[in-house]
Amino acid sequence: MNNAPLPATLGDPDTLHFLDDESVDGGAREAVWRLLVVDDEPDVHRATAFALAGVKILGRALEFLHAYSAAEAAELLRTEVDVAVVLLDVVMEREDAGLALIKTIRQDLKLTEVRIILRTGQPGYAPEIETIHDFDINDYKTKSELTRTKLYATVTAALRAYEQIRKLDELAFYDGLCKLPNRNKFIHLRDERLASGLFPDDVLAIVDIDDFSEINDALGHQQGDRLLQAVAERLKRELGDDVVLARIGSDTFGLMGARSLITPQKVLTLFSEPFVVQDDAMLVTATVGLNPLQGAAVTGRDALKDANTALKLAKKKWRGSFVTFSAAMGTDTRERVQLMQNLRNAVEREELFIVYQPQVNLASGKVVGVEALLRWQMDDGTFVPPDRFIPLAEASGLIVSLGDWVLRMSCRELVRLQALGFPDLRMSVNVSQIQFRHPEFLDQLHATLVDTGIRPHCLELEITESVAMEDADFMLEILHKVRELGISIAIDDFGTGYSSLNHLRQLPIDRLKIDRAFVSELNEQVMGGHIASMVVELGRNLNLTVIAEGIEDEAQAQTLLRLGCHEGQGYLYARPMTAAHLTQWLQNRRCAH
Ligand code: C2E
Ligand code: MG
Ligand code: MG
Predict the structure, then answer these.
(1) Which of 212, 331, 414, 469 has its CA 20 to 30 A from that of 300?
(2) DSSP of 533-565, one letter per residue?
(3) Whose CA is nearest to atom 22 of ligand 1?
(4) What pLDDT digit, counting tens, does each position of 437-484 carry?
(5) In angstroms, what is the span from residue 17 Cα to ligand 3's centroid?
(6) What value does the mean pLDDT of the chain take?
(7) Based on the domain organization, do 393 and 540 belong to the same domain?
(8) Mapping DSSP to helix (H, G, I), strand (E, B) and coil, where does residue 119 land?
(9) Whose Cα sits closest to atom 46 in ligand 1?
(10) pLDDT at position 129, please?
(11) How far is the CA of 583 from the centre of ligand 2 (A)?
(12) Is the pLDDT of residue 12 over 80?
């Protein structure tokens, strides 16, 4: 058995394609997987290297690094980059040297991506289950278990996991188009710099390209993308490495660095020469919002918000120029106050109502549930989109009573539908963070269950990915309590927030909802397809149901089904409908099937 030839590669072609290396540095050196063997017995190093000599895994050769003590390993990991897997002996210079090293790796060095395979010579000496869980250890093996084939399989599984985590981090923190940190990363970096205390002189700026959407429409997306890349390149080159550059929105860049390095004049001058994009010289202007920070302990999120306030003001009055934020600016007040007032009136006048959008099983076409979506129609007939009024309702606290109302109404509606002969239907309700944080949330939820008589397992709460990831301990606790009531939980807009796989794994959730941005990109040969497939794979690995939202055509549905996605929702099946329409729709569909 040990002599059986190893296959050259494992995995299906799709996976290989998906795992293509897109490293930012252009991959000058042949892509390899870097494995670190940590063991105080030289024989184990030799045996490991021998067992895996010459093999390729997931299309890449292996490169070995060797450390003979935990201390040496820690030193290596401090300096070496891209180590994918650590094969780690438990007992070395001390009984628990290996376990201590794991803590160093995860907590001190903050290496969360590297996969760890624990090995021990002494059967029976196994670490506590909690250690394995808390420190995200991939595998635990006694050395005798590690025959050549088993070692190969173990390392392959670890490399797969590593690649998936890296993609997830990349997705969460990097902008693939301009090869820059994204908004999340930018906020993190600000927080890090703030915490370090080493950058008292920081300022933060947002650079927004004027009329970019017109340029995009006129010249096409490809040309628009190239223009963004050209702008990114110039900013990077001219501002230098001491300025942090990020792409924080579709046509906006974030800058952070010393006051002397980022002056609005300097930034605007960078736009005085045209950008050369595929033989075309394009002259574009930009508007800058500057947040001087002035040594204030402003967190990343708030700093960005203030810079954005300045930017908005600049856009309104002085395009191609800049505005510096001052505390007096506050937020874009008048408009919000007006809309807020209207919203309060709307609630009183009962201008708000709920529509329902069906969710289907992709393989069978069977309707499995509906999502409740809030609507606001003003008395002149126009709709205010929820993306606009929900944030307002959140900011004012109105969402607490509003959300409670949505929950009650939709539970009642489900009970009604079930009685009409759709007993297995599920109701998904969006819940915002403010609701979760309200001290009476759980009581209200419980009361809703009792009052409406809904069976708890037919109710699902949707929370957005970013909410699920914020304030981990709090969310973990409350989600567990929601689960204890028998209610299920879905992570909405998955792929857009920033997830750590470690955290995701701990959350008591039932479903991942792929954001519709990635579904709409499925037809094109771009990252989107990869992201959708990654989310499906991830969900399946975590034993979660995966649902895709925003499915608009049959091709997308077929692709998703092929990728292994379980459920779908989108205009292809039905638009969100009023309760009356939904009943009709369900009945028609039942007749047709
Ligand atoms: P969401 O929860 O991700 O809801 C899905 C959105 O996608 C809905 O937009 C839906 O109408 C839209 N959609 C569904 N299928 C398609 C499709 O095939 N193509 C396209 N282009 N769009 C599709 P909607 O209703 O505008 O809601 C926007 C967001 O507002 C929701 O995103 C949700 O985050 C929030 N929201 C809506 N109702 C509530 C509510 O009652 N409470 C809370 N807290 N948030 C809500
Ligand atoms: Mg939703
Ligand atoms: Mg969504």
Answers:
(1) 212
(2) HHHHHHHHHTT-EEEEE---SHHHHHHHHHHT-
(3) 550
(4) 888 999 999 999 999 999 999 999 999 887 777 777 888 899 999 999
(5) 27
(6) 86
(7) yes
(8) strand
(9) 430
(10) 63
(11) 21
(12) no
Does 354 sit in the ligand 1 pocket, CB within 6 Å? Answer: no
SS3 string, 298-329, reads CCHHHHHHHHHHHHHHHHHHCCCCEEECCHHH
Residue 16 pLDDT level (bands cut at 50, 70, 90): very low
For the domain that residue 188 is a member of, what is the CATH number? 3.30.70.270
What is the arithmetic mean of pLDDT over 300-311?
Answer: 87
Tell me the mean pLDDT in the region 288-304: 83
Query: Among the atoms of ligand 1, which is closest to the Cα of residue 406?
Result: 41
513 lines ligand 1 (CB under 6 A): no
Domain count, the chain: 3
In angstroms, how far is the first alpha carbon of the chain from the final one? Answer: 52
How far apart are the C-alpha atoms of 42 and 61, rounded to whole Å?
22
Q: Which residue has the higher pLDDT, 388 or 561?
A: 561
> Over pLDDT 70: what percentage of the chain?
89
Please report the pLDDT score of residue 500 as a whole number. 66
The total number of residues written for the chain in this structure:
593
Cα separation, 417 vs 531, in Å, equals 35
Give, as one character, the DSSP assignment of residue 5: P
Q: How far is the CA of 372 from the centre of ligand 2 (A)?
A: 8
CA 36 to the chain's CA centroid:
29
Residue 294 has pLDDT above 80, yes or no: no
Pair 72, 95 in one domain:
yes
**Whether 395 and 529 share a structural domain:** yes
16 domain-assigned: no
- Mean pLDDT value of segment 113-130: 75
Cβ burial of 588 (10 Å; 0-12, 13-18, 19+) is exposed
Return the ligand 1 atom nearest residue 572 CA. 18
Pocket-testing residue among 430, 436, 554, 569, ligand 1, by greatest number of atoms within 8 A of Cβ = 430
pLDDT tens string 311-340: 888 887 667 777 777 766 655 556 667 778
CATH of the domain at 558: 3.20.20.450
- The pLDDT value recorded for residue 74 is 96
Measure CA 365 to chain center.
Answer: 28
Model confidence at 387: pLDDT above 60 = yes
**Closest CA to ligand 1's atom 20:** 550
Element (H, E) at 171: helix 148-173
What pLDDT is attached to residue 518?
A: 86
**CB 492 less than 6 A from any atom of ligand 1:** yes
Domain coverage including residue 416: 349-592
Using the mean position of ligand 2's atoms as its centre, give its distance from the Cα of residue 251 in Å.
26
DSSP letter string, 246-286: EEEETTEEEEEEETTT--HHHHHHTTSSPEEETTEEE---E
Same domain, 490 and 375: yes
Protein residues with C-beta less than 5 angstroms from the ion ligand 2: 430, 462, 492
Q: Is 549's C-beta closer than 6 angstroms to any atom of ligand 1?
A: yes
Question: Residue 374: CB within 6 Å of ligand 1?
Answer: yes
Ligand number nearest to the C-alpha of 574:
1
